[in-house]
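In the design runs reported in the main text, the only information available to the sequence generator was the tokenized backbone. The following block is the verbatim input for one such run; it is reproduced so that readers can re-run the procedure and compare outputs position by position.
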């Protein structure tokens, strides 16, 4: 079965990208796939190994060791890779080379972005550009907070402007905000990008219960 690689991006930080990405990995492994994972850029605390907690969750879902190879750039400062301060993030061309090495012996890759899809890696190079240049279809993860319509539509418009292919939207219902039906109706009214899955509070971490695998994976 030929399944294209997937980039899990977000409308913002803390919308549940890792939950969705890990769930996808487990779903694909359940289909008999040899799945590779990557968290190219990350920020925040780590356990001394230089590998982020998000990368560890992805590695656990894939059944592999959480090595720096799957999380090449981690910084403790919780800020974009490009901070404007001269701090050098791993250049996207080198990141793409590492992605290709990881993908070489895998049936499919699941790559998780950092923050929203307009988080800058270089002054005019964003997470959406990285997904495009890796040749990945992007799942846009949005939560149900007030403001999510603006964030989602802005993200979709930005992806269109950057030439980033969007496969669809995943709604992660994690806040006391809009209800699922209302949110889906509003999104249908302002965009033609499909809502491929809606996750509820009751879903266990990294488990996409009740999700149509075919719709989510584009198969």
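Verbatim output:
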């Amino acid at each position: 079965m030929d399944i294209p690689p997937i980039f899990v991006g977000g409308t913002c930080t803390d919308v549940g990208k890792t939950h969705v990405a890990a769930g996808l990995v487990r779903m694909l492994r359940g289909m008999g796939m040899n799945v590779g994972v990557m968290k190219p850029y990350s920020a925040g605390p780590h356990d001394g190994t230089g590998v982020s907690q998000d990368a560890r969750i992805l590695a656990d879902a894939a059944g592999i060791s959480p090595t720096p190879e799957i999380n090449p750039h981690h910084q403790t400062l919780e800020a974009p890779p490009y901070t404007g301060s001269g701090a050098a993030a791993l250049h996207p061309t080198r990141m793409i080379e590492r992605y290709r090495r990881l993908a070489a012996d895998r049936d499919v890759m699941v790559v998780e972005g950092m923050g929203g899809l307009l988080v800058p890696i270089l002054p005019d190079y964003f997470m959406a550009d990285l997904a495009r240049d890796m040749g990945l279809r992007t799942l846009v993860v949005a939560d149900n907070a007030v403001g999510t319509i603006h964030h989602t539509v802005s993200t979709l418009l930005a992806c269109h402007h950057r030439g980033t292919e969007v496969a669809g939207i995943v709604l992660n219902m994690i806040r006391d905000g809009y209800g699922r039906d209302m949110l889906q109706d509003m999104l249908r009214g302002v965009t033609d990008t499909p809502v491929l899955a809606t996750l509820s509070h009751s879903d266990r971490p990294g488990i996409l219960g009740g999700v149509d695998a075919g719709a989510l994976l584009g198969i």
